[in-house]
Structure formats: structure tokens, C-alpha cells
Amino acid sequence: MQVFRPEGTYRCADRLTADELRAAMASQEILQSTALAFDTDRRLRFTFAAGQGVMPFAEAADGADAGTVRDIAVLTRVGRPTCFVIRAIEPGPDGRLQLALSRAQAQRMCKAEYLDKLAPGDIIDAVVTHIEPFGAFCDIGCGISALLPIDCLSVSRISSPADRVTPGQLIHCVIKSRDVQGRFVLSLRELLGTWQENADAFRPGETVVGVVRSIEDYGTFIEIAPNLAGLAESCAELVPGQAVSVYIKNILPEKMKVKLVIVNRNLNQHIRFALRYFITEGHMDQWIYSTPESHKTIVTDFGYALL
After folding, report:
1. Taking a C-beta distance cutoff of 8 angstroms, is the pair 81, 73 a contact?
2. Whole-angstrom Cα distance, residue 115 to residue 107?
3. Fewest 10 Å CB contacts: which of 21, 129, 195, 293?
4. pLDDT band (50, 70, 90) for residue 232
5. What is the per-residue pLDDT for 94?
6. Does the pTM exceed 0.85?
């Protein structure tokens, strides 16, 4: 049974034998290799131990044959792992195999057999491909892209998606919504724990590392976990993103507040907290961040996520 995964995680075709390549073609197994060139005939070219592979522009991405894919989206595959199925194998003039490859077919299979069956609330794996100020784009299968907006990366406020994830990083996400064109929007924050789950990792009296997230007239918000921030005194010398050490003065579940005192503002290093997942698979109908005692409710209802 074919398992659909982000590009770069499939079996590499480079050292497969001729028989193994023919078996993969017969079963329509998705393989991958690194594209070595985009030639003047607008083809991606690959080299295998058993021969050569060619992927015409029309087969380089779903929609390329209809003119909805730009050249830049294909030529930037050069030097990067690219997934495909083998459409045909022929003997070459030198006795080596000539393989006709299709990434577009792999993407159509991924959509029909995997992505079209997903719904808001489903938890999936994704790989971050690139970062923009408004969010991170992620590969959710065979190079098919979905957006992870900046406000869905965590409950704690961040100034850039790079504060939370990096290109090439494998992450778990939950499907937030899908529009009528089939484009997915992802979320991460629901997998990183509720207020109470995060607060349980800390105790009053501890001194921990934190990251300044925002500076207000009434105080400074400092993140001590991706889904948990506390409030310290105002300090005009601090800037968002700065690492500090803080003393935990009090933890108040009924108010969802963590009171902090800044101990050291001169750590002189960049801190990015590792993602700690509380959920990594399955499906969510609803996620409630707030504590039962709190009058403020922060909730995600995936039943209303269809656009």
C-alpha cells in the first residue's frame, strides 16, 4: 500500500537495479531522486545507477500541462529531492535504461488517495519548505503545499515564523481548514498543549530561560514555552526576541497568568524553544486552551473549519 509523505522522505531510486525499477513502475510506487538539471527542452534530468531519467515540464507538477505552473517552480527542483512515479522504461542506445518520470502523477495520486480524504481536525506530518512574514509553507505530500499562518504557530505571540520553525523541519500539524479549490490551511498550536499542560512543567520559585515577545506599557510578555507566556515588569531596554532569565513568582490557573521577575537580561544568545507535542496523531473535534477556572475562553472548533 502506497503511503503518501512529504517530498524528500521516499525511497531513493539512485541505486535501484533495473528489476527493482521495473517492479516500482508496475506497482506505481513513488520514488525520489535529486534532479541534476533543467535543460533547454524544459525537462528535469536524473541519473541512476541503472540509467537516466527524464521528466518533461508537463509532468513536473500537477497543473503544469494546463499552464498553471511557472518555470521557476520547476527549475528550482534542481539540486533538490524530487518525487515521481515511473511512467515508462526503455533500453537506451548504450544499453542503459531510459526512464520517463512523472511528479505530476505522484501528486494526483496523493490528492485522490490521501489529501481528498482528509478533514479539518485531522493530524498529519508536514515538512517546512520556506518561510514568509505571514507564515510558513509546508509540504503535506509529494510536494503539495499548504500554508501554516503565523498566528497558528503557537498561542504565544511571535514576530516571525522563524521563531518557531525552520525550512526542512519535519513537524506535526492539524488541518485547520480547506477551501473550495482544495487548498489547505494548517495549524500547529493545538498540538503544543493547553495552558495547564504547559504550566504543569513549571513551579513557583524556579528560574528559567525565556524569550521576550512583546513590550507593553503595563509589562513585558515573556515566553517560557511555545504555548505559554508570563508577564514581567516593564523594561524599555528589552526588545522582542531577546533571551532573558526569569524568576517564576506565581502561577495562577484561574487567571491563566504567570507572574515573572526578570533576573538577567544579558544572556547574549538566541533562544528558540524546541516543539513539545502533546498530540501527534489522530483527529481533533475541538481544542480548549483555557483552564476550567478561567473566565477567558480560547478554543478551536474544527467542526466549523470547512470553508
Report:
1. no
2. 10
3. 293
4. very high
5. 83
6. yes
Q: What is the mean pLDDT of residues 97-102?
A: 97
Write out the E strands in the chain.
11-12, 31-34, 37-38, 43-48, 51-56, 81-91, 97-102, 123-132, 135-141, 144-149, 170-178, 184-187, 207-216, 219-225, 228-232, 243-252, 257-264, 286-288, 299-301
What amino acid is encoded at 171 in this protein? Answer: I
Task: Dump pLDDT digits (tens) for 261-286.
Answer: 999 988 878 888 999 999 999 999 99
Longest dimension (CA), the chain: 76
Domains and CATH numbers, the chain: 11-113 (2.40.50), 118-193+278-304 (2.40.50.140), 195-264 (2.40.50.140)
Identify which of 51, 35, 33, 32 has the alpha carbon closest to the alpha carbon of residue 43: 35
- Report the chain's C-alpha Rg in angstroms: 24
